[in-house]
Batch of 2 targets.
Target 1
Amino acid sequence: MQVPKLLILSLLTIPTVLLSGNISAAVSRADASDWFYTAQIQRDTTRRNAKNSAKHSLDSMQYLNATVVVADRAQIKIIPSQTLHGKELENLSVHSVADAIRYFSGVQIKDYGGIGGLKTVNVRGMGTQHVGVFYDGVELGNAQNGTVDLGRFSLDNMEAISLYNGQKSSIFQSAKDFASASSIYMETKLPSFYGIKNNNYKVTTKGGSFGTINPSFLWEHKFSEKISSSFSTEYLYTTGRYKFTYRKKDGYDTTQFRHNGQVKSFRAEAAVFGHTGGGEFYDGVARGTQWKVKSYFYDSNRGFPGASVREEPGKFIHADHQWDRNFFTQGSYKKNFSGFYGLLLNAKFALDRLHYVSDPRLDVSTMYINNIYNQHELYASAANDFRFYKWWDLNLSADFQYNKLNSNMLNFAYPKRYTIYSAAATSFRFKKIKVQGSLLYTYVTEDVKKGSNAAKDKHKFTPTIVASYIPFDDIDLTFRAFYKKVFRMPTLNDLYYTFIGSTLLKPEMAKQYDAGATYKKEWKGGFLKNITGDVDVYYNEISDKIIAMPTSNQFRWTMVNLGYVEIKGVDVALSGTYAINKARINTRFTYTYQKAQDFTDKSSNYYGGQIPYIPWHSGSAIVGGEYEGWEANYSFIYTGKRYSSQANIPENRELAWYTSDFTFAKTLKFSNSGKFIKDNSATANNNFDIRLSAEVNNIFNQQYEVVRCYPMPGINFRFIVSVIF
Amino acid sequence: MKKTYFFFFFSLVFLLSGCRGSDIIVPSTPTTVDTSAGKTSSAIAGMFLLNEGNMGSNKATLDYYNYNTGVYHKNIFATINPLVSRELGDVGNDIQIYGGKLYAVINCSHYIEVMDVRTAKHIAAITIPNCRYIVFNKGYAYISSYAGPVLINPNARLGYVARMDTTTFKIDTLVVGYQPEEMVISGDNLYVANSGGYRVPNYDRTVSVIDLNKFKVTTTIDVAINLHRMEADEYGNIYVSSRGDYYTVPSSIYVINSSTNTVTKNLHIPCSEMTLCGDSLYVYSTGWSYVTNKNTISYTVYNTKAQVKMPDSFIKDGTEKNIVIPYGIAVNPITRDIFVTDAKDYVTPGTLYCFSKEGKKKWSVTTGDIPAHMVFTTKKLQNF
């Protein structure tokens, strides 16, 4: 592919970085998009370029989406992902990872409103529990309910967010990377040091609507050329209070406030990165060892505003409260022992505590709930890559995971789950054709306390085949296709939740068929510098879908394998870069069509209805401009008409909604002596930067709901000040 | 090119803006269900049906069946009352008529919607937290509520009965047992079934007896765990259902003698809901067992005069096979037509079945979500 060409280009154009012996910077920065080595990202290129005097020769570089510093097998993927990088993320006026993911095609976010409201992601209509969420290369688990609240992940220290449909078709990865129907990879920033600097600091304060104050701090330290560290921490407070309006044509018009949406959260992350060796064996296989250890701590205290339903205004305070505490430590070690053999080890230990209180002493309308759930997770993985030829790899990986769920609930089963994942994958990569085939074996066994019944052991083999084809030598057009069969386990709640769970549940199966193409073109001169277009059509089947079924009354449900859903869809993404003199414009458009039909019950009047909350049409647009240190960004989200139930009747119709957000930012550069540097391109004496940013979100103050009875905020503002030194 | 581009972009935004449409009040929809209707005149003019709507979706709706025209009108409340904010609210739990007023108990919206029975027009909304059921006596409404005072242990929170003057809507309350449900009036006494459903496994097992003249609890009767439904016959017997515990203790109906206030009988008939018409107690049961993970459904008639369980189901034409989750029952006191609702999967519209007194299906119609509570009216509803 482009790899060798880009490699050479990078080597030629960033000589100072390499010559100063600062390979670690280049290498570890590159890690951002793929953990180790791997594809460099636009922002870094731009930044590094700006720090070189050979500026003009670099201009063309800035418009290449990916350059490669040290090629490696881990970065080779058969089909691409959708990715948002640091700079794009910084300019999107979004609060959390969930908000950013809305700009990918094929994605629907269920958003319960406000900064503290639950936000879960559903990719291609298959349901939240089919999405694997990876944080710095290791999956974030939630054996209890199988979903990850992406609203809790800040963008403050995020380098890249990627979405892979099917699987990340890398040839060298853990077995769990093969184990979801689609995957989101969040990659935090990796330290990089310019020149003789051994420390980087970034202090940021964000504040704005909903009484939000959100300071954060990042410190990167270089111990030696081989070892560096990063420490990042953040505090968030918000009242979560906002006005919302329900207005019916020729009917009522009511404006109320959202109460009890306050959030206090604290996050701290520390990581140490190391590497030894350098250079390469052959064919771009890097020598040496890479390792990384990371600890993450998150503590939050949030109110639950609940569904907004008719009631006497201001009468009930809705005081339900939830405390979360998440901690994990994870480590990775990777070594290419030779050009032939590479080893990747991952391990993780996680503790998650959830405490929910509903207290009738505070809110007369509720019943008393005081539930605590504690989850423990242990995870270990080994992946082995064998490269027989430059074009043929075999990957054998095995993962082990242990989950335990404790609770103070009555009749609780105290489930323990042991899971073994093993995967065999092979890939063939020729000039025009690349193929990856993988087979995942999953074994799950569970234990419960005496007196309860554990679910039966589960064994499953699930295959995937991924291929891409480049038909022309002179046109950058790539076709791709994949077939993947995978399943999601019933969650521990599905199986063991007191009164609701059912141990008879089978895994929920997902089958995916996808075909697509990417077209890219670049221009040297002119206004338009490059464009990239992606189109995918897909067909998914979800069978044995785990759904909640009512029992004898509204308040008692149980879980059954009843559902069957078929999803047909089209994803389109189009991006381009324009430049004139010193001004640059980046654009990105996505469009998603989904027909997701419920074929569960033939006798139902609503057989074949569009499943809840999946719009037929949705899309997004981002237009960002840069000029002399000024940046402006406009982003737009559109979600078309959809229904809140598979009964597609007027009562369940949810209005389309769209929001427009604006960001304006200016970066000011100061010299060592604190003098303001006017020339924005000057870097030589640059000592510290101040970045000021103002955001206006939902500028047309649209009143909308993503989920019925969970109103979203109208127009809101945010201001950000960052000092980088 | 730049200009063209922005023009294109903003026209796209503009176009999409047009795609939103306005948020309308969903109009009521009529369906003719009985073409033979109106041929015989009857004191019963129609029937209101309250759909619960799934909790947290603000989808309680009101339907009306016109006996004279044979037309079923789905979702009439919002059409009649477009200015009432957020429609009928969240989880309709009971509907009754007293005097010239129609009362709907909206559980998760925590209020009683009071309407004019002739027009279904909003008169008042009276807040009562976690209100459940309503009965009437001598100008007062009695409403059971879970939201009693919290003493020391928040998990041991008693419920209350609210007494509401039906003209001034003034309220006073009386503490009863845990999570009180249905009530019946027999003589000068109000009987309240206490469930204790929030206190699993420490269910309540009592019926509170309230002297209506003093509005004081005079005695409590120990019956069985998790009490729910109540009916009073003309022979001084009160029928109260126990939900059981969904594991090993089965649901059943117990009989209380209202003169001695003692339990006289366990009928061994599982019961989700029952209604009394003449001497016939119509009972259905959707018994969920966590042991077998199955619903067991039955339709039974108990003769309160002979005190015997009738051998047959009250549905005799096999229609019961189509009913997924029976969720409500009512019997027309004049024609003896039997109405049974099917809540299906709870998240799509349900079905109302009308059976003749012989147990043969006359008609069925699509309702709102979770059709559950019915009341017959002798006064014609205007415009419907």
Target 2
Amino acid sequence: MAGRGKHALSFKILGECSTSKARASAVTLPHATVEAPVFMPVGTQGTLKGLVPDQLRELDCKIMLGNTYHLGHRPGPDLLEKAGGLHKFMNWDRALLTDSGGFQMVSLLELAEITEEGVKFKSPHDGSMMLLTPEKSIEIQNAIGADIIMQLDDVVHSSVSGPRLEEAMHRTIRWLDRCIAAHKRPSEQCLFPIVQGGLNAELREKCAKELLKRDVGGYAIGGLSGGEEKSDFWKMVKVSTDLLPKDKPRYLMGVGFAVDLVVCVALGCDMFDCVFPTRTARFGCALVKTGQLNLKSKSFAQDFRPIDGSCLCPTCKTYTRAYLHTLANTEAAACNIITVHNVAYQVPSVGGWWPLCWALLFLSCQTSIVLILLTFYFFLPLVLNPVNEICIVYNP
Amino acid sequence: MKYTVEAVLASGGRLGKLSQTSTAGTIAMETPMCTLFTKGGSAPHLSAVMLQRISQVPEVACMSLGSIASHHENVREFGKGLGEFSAMKDKVIFTTLHDATAAVASGKNDKGGVAVWGKGGKMKLDPQLYMKVQEAFCPDWFQALSDGDTDKTCGKKRLLKAVDRTLDFLDDIVEMKNESEVLKTSSLIGAIEGGYSVEERRRSAKETAARPVDGFLIEGFEKGHSSVDLFADEEFMTVLTETMVHLPDDKPRMMDAVWSPLQVIRAFRLGIDVFSSAYPHTLTEKGFALTADYSLPPTSQPAKLELEGSKENSASSGFYVDLNDKRFFESFSPILPGCGCYTCANFTCSYLHHLLNTSELLAYVLLTIHNFEQYFKFFARLRETGRQDKLSELEQSLARQEGGQREDVVR
């Protein structure tokens, strides 16, 4: 079992693409063996938006996320420890990953101040000043007990450059060492460091090289979901994956649009997460190959097809777009029903486009196949992104 | 719809068999029973798959027109009726006018028709439009259009009007139903009105029973679903008893009210056969979980009893517990040990408290499952107790349990 190894994670490549850096792999964690590439749905507060864990199991979901910032507040690490960890608390026996809490500090809180010690912020609950240090983040994540935990990193918006960006990169490495030192359950929880460096290739390289000196079970690529240009974003992913070792999993944080998944799989990333599929479901939007259907729109009032005729999820087997249209405007049940489809769409082997992609990768596909897939899924995005931008990724 | 009385109980109420035959076969049901409360054609908060995790789900899905009437043209275009449209193909579909849990504005009905409310606002239904909607929906049972906008404050003139109007609507509907190919096999449920006037109730019952209806829905006691406890008033019971006398025995009597198990027993003993399951939904919406004990003598230990430092109700078990309460923060036991529902088998009070505290959707999913399961179980227990002729004991036990919670049972 992975739990007994040096790291709480073992990684096995099952097949590789001969052209791109894409690979199919098995990531073995204490609570599950996860086939990658994998999309991990986000269950912020110890629940995935109205779904019970059994539904996620039925959708073949093997790993989901929890957010340290939210769980640290409510119900708090003390209770989670008493409950026997988040797995037991929420009755999820498969793998979990928690972030460090740093991203929410910076994105949610106006008054966050970052010092060498940690992230200082004003509690949204009682207004008192609090400090999230690398040690504190790991302490909370140890209490939550996820299979994969993340280092606290110094997150800056992707538009930031210059000395602040450089400082953040260096600080991220210093904080990593503090996180490694503070980690009390390395045989049960695998700590991932994070490649930072914004949109500066040189900084990313420097950062990745520093991380390589540390003994870790896998790597994350961070700071890249802040609305930067696709060409910059893909270039930074490529710079990072070029340096990261092939024999460890690579987790691209906060990325979840279908087109990004396909490109970044080709660039060698294995794990992804994003709130988008679950968030958009709450607004009545269902994901399909051509984008998303806003089921609240009148155009679906007499559309008696399922969301996606080729999808095998319970939602597509049960409901028509027309009925979901009547529900989406008024009833809470609509959110659950659409979320099931959107998770199925993103998670391997059940819905949407992903199984096709995965199967092809698994078969160690030839040059053309990934390119055909890319062309297909780029059909719409191409309107926005000129062809040469995509070429940059492949012929740098 | 076919109804037969199996036994009339000495302690009041009757046990019966209700069967519904369709092309798919015959569904046999026993009364007293409840229907499945729905919102927009689905069980509240639940997908069809999640509904399957509840045991003893009623065979009849009750769908109020408010939120769905405006979609009737889409359902007509669909062509297979409301049941299949809303993924409830296997259920007996019963369309009613109003959502028992939603407040209804008063004074909007007139001679021409009745107003129903959805999220999109008011929709005025005259008999023609009403039947157009029903033809699109093809329900197995449907309530006749009615003016139930009356209560104890209404004077004689208003009650007279309500009864007359409802009978006029019924005549129109019977005529249109006879001419309708689609609704030929649907069962028509006549509405009994008359507020608190025994005289008007009697007239409404007699006149409605003289028309070709298959069952009766007794309403018009509370305007706009005021959520007052009707049983607190002796007069309500007198009026209801008097109404029953004039209804034929071979047709089911229904009331679509938000009633706790105790209120259901009382109404059953006065002769009601078919109830709504709106009550557990109102508890769910508040973060409450049903913990009433239906065994005789009561044996279970609701979660709240195991907690220290609980407030005034700690000594007696109650009908429900409020999971928003901080005392559940560290309670790692299920809501009701031995409950057997999906929620109690998999989740703790502490987790449910956390979900409520963070306003997570799953809180309402899990509470719906528990509260429905408990309420459906109560009806099975009610039938069993009826057969054993121990209704008085069950009523007394529930009355004791209700204890200090009586005042805010509903909403």
